[in-house]
Amino acid sequence: xxxDDVVPKAFRALVENAEKKYAGVRDLPAYGRWxxxxxxxxxxxxxxxxxxxxxxxxxxxxxxxxxxR
Length: 69
What we know:
Blueprint: H1 6-26, H2 34-57, H3 59-64
Helix pairs in contact: 1-2
């Protein structure tokens, strides 16, 4: 593995993690007890914030690999 491949692979891992967590929240009912599902919403928000921060810190490298704004 080359050192150049680290940025796109880490980005792809963050995207897949965030999408997996979002899929779990998306399937929750829109009614009922919010106390139990609030925990899952927090996890999804945290995953997407991690992804956003990674994008901002590595924007130049990601655009070199073809990520478009």
